[in-house]
């Protein structure tokens, strides 16, 4: 494809995308294909010769589209939202065309700086404390765009692990990192996302699940109880994950209580608000953020509810040096003369003096050996005092650019070390400290007086994700984003009202934000059967959840295109399938639920039962369309000025026949009872 064909086909693609999203409501949301269907339709090998673009795209329509779950459909209610929007799509189009990699400032100055700006905008929009922002040169906090909330959770756990191991190594210099690692333990709710468990597996640490309360919330008292018990066993609590908006029921852990426990025990507090974080753009939902200033890191997914297409996870840390210590590698090819003047999301050096250039860092992967304890030291590895490790080190091993260096407790480098000569005999070149005597174990060191941020993430390369986030924030504005969030909550409340109005269904847990967890009353098997049949029919798509033995269907508002009518249509589909299942099992569409029908009462009977009942004859917009309403519920504001104005208006109110051609009377009197 050359540039001429690209101009034509790219415009056709834009039309295809616009038509797809505009008419997505008409598509079957869940595909009716079986595993392996695509293998039967496509060749087993790549084509030998180039194929025409029209032939390629014909296969998209014929083979790919029938096998997709349409996540942007208003009838998609599974999982959480994975929304996109036109400004986000255009941001990704431009980012894909530019294809810049934003791992250092030098690799893409505008890319790295725009990410800092966009993350500061977003942090303020959520109402995050200033300590999480990076608006000043000396600010230790800041934001970074990760790929997923799962990665943000893992990054925070690894940073906390490094911090804990550094402290433990100072107290127990005779132990290797692998031995210290066995004493670490972290915590989360039993309602936490599966990615939290996966982070613990990757980090090689123990994970304890705290039982949630009746509202599916993790509370401080339960956490304190678990930590105290683990400390008695010689374990060290180092990381806690609090969830704001659990997967099963969008429940919220008590952030303030948990934060106070974490501060007491020196544990890192990470807040996972993957879905619910978007709601904090609306002030009325920020009460769930109470206590966020006690957190060390906070993450949510704009790629869920904020209409920024995947992937885009916003993560803030209170002290970014914790990340730098964990992911610090600094090869020569990533250094540049502007290091320290702006954020590098990958590489740089500390703003420290020479002696602190040697980070006291435990490298699990390299399994750094520590010097053996002196003979006159105590034999036991851990001296416990109220569950706290108290043994202090005399010397420690640190690591500078892959060279192990022996330092004393103050971090001073002995003059007999190779590094001293290297650092002491340097010549400055383009902002670097160049080693004058050639290559050895150390090739090159950054200027230690520069503030250069190190690694913020696990991968090296990173996409220009800030562009699509910036586009969405500007094109929608604060008001537009808030309107979008509030509409999703309103539609969920409407669905909940429909569920509660049907005696066959129940909502076992309070509904929060844009998700409702509901079920058929009775055995879990009824609800499970309902969900399977709904998904098989393909008109709507939902997934289950289970908390405390109760099987529920999660119904999430996932599309900004969802309307009131869509909710009514989807509820009607649910009722139809439920009636079929209950009829099959019980022989009645109501199942074993006794439904009492309300008797119809005529207007005459209403007047006889209620002597104060009154009616008003009102005109609709269309002529000759009288409406009968119950006038007993009319209320009039008693402000004197308003009453005077109303009296004057009623006194002058006359409607001539020419003003209402369908009316046969010259004057219509309104009776208010």
Automatic annotation (TrEMBL):
InterPro entries referenced in this protein's UniProt entry, alphabetically? Aromatic_deC, PyrdxlP-dep_de-COase, PyrdxlP-dep_Trfase, PyrdxlP-dep_Trfase_major, PyrdxlP-dep_Trfase_small, Pyridoxal-P_BS
Q: Which GO terms describe its biological process?
A: catecholamine biosynthetic process; histamine biosynthetic process; L-histidine catabolic process
Q: Which GO terms describe its cellular component?
A: cytoplasm
Q: Does the keyword Lyase apply?
A: yes
Cofactor(s) needed for function: pyridoxal 5'-phosphate
Spell out the PROSITE patterns in the cross-references: DDC_GAD_HDC_YDC
Enzyme Commission number, as recorded: 4.1.1.22
One Pfam assignment: Pyridoxal_deC
Q: How does it assemble?
A: Homodimer.
User: What is the protein's given name?
Assistant: Histidine decarboxylase
Which species is this UniProt entry from? Bombyx mori (Silk moth)
